[in-house]
Amino acid sequence: MKHVPNIITLARLVLTLLVFLALLAGVTMPTSGPPLLWFAFWGFVIAGVTDFLDGWLARRFKVESLTGAILDPIADKVLVAGAIVGLAINGDHVAALTGGLILFREFSISALREVLAPRGLRLPVTMLAKWKTTLQLVALAAALLRLTQPGWMTGPVSLGIDLSLWLAAAVTIWTGIEYGLAARKALKS
């Protein structure tokens, strides 16, 4: 049981690569598009669920590890980035724009953590940041589902998906501001 959470995280990384390749192939091989887009959607959903599962298992069975602490956020960011890029190349302009904001924040906070670590300063994950990840995964899954259903490109369902992407981006930016302020305070003291 000791290594199961890390194995799940590694599997999530592999599945993320397959999701991205399916999204890319869906554009480059239009005749294979629909099955590949469905694979991308379900692969993303499964990868998103494993994000919660690996952490829960590690805490539940008290097998948290440094490897897991390093791999899990990397796998999260790769999953989100892969979905955003995949949606963008498939023509989802709202996902591309909101995704750009999300990725800017994600990379900025990762860089900030790298700057703080040698000084012995940490930015612990907040509860809102955990909700941010959930919002990102739900919004991106909805956008991927929209790809599988071209009829959803217009109307209230599509508007709801776009609003969920904007909400995820707004919460992501807000948590980035919170982390920035916390880092500034930590650096001053």
Task: Give the SSE layout.
Layout lengths: L3 H25 L4 H28 L5 H24 L3 H24 L10 H22 L7 H33 L1
Identify the notable features of this structure and list them briefly:
single chain; mainly alpha; Four Helix Bundle (Hemerythrin (Met), subunit A); globular
Structural commentary:
By secondary structure, this protein is an all-alpha fold. It has one domain: Four Helix Bundle (Hemerythrin (Met), subunit A) (Up-down Bundle). The chain contains six helices and no strands. The protein has helices at residues 4-28, 33-60, 66-89, 93-116, 127-148, 156-188. The chain is globular, with a radius of gyration of 17 Å. The termini are far apart. 35% of the residues are buried.
CATH class: Mainly Alpha
Count of spatially separate domains = 1
In percent, how helical is the residue content?
A: over 70%
Q: Which structural class fits the helix and strand makeup?
A: mainly alpha
Quick structural overview:
The protein has 189 residues and is an all-alpha fold. It has one domain (4-188): CDP-alcohol phosphotransferase transmembrane (TM) domain (Four Helix Bundle (Hemerythrin (Met), subunit A), Up-down Bundle), CATH 1.20.120.1760.
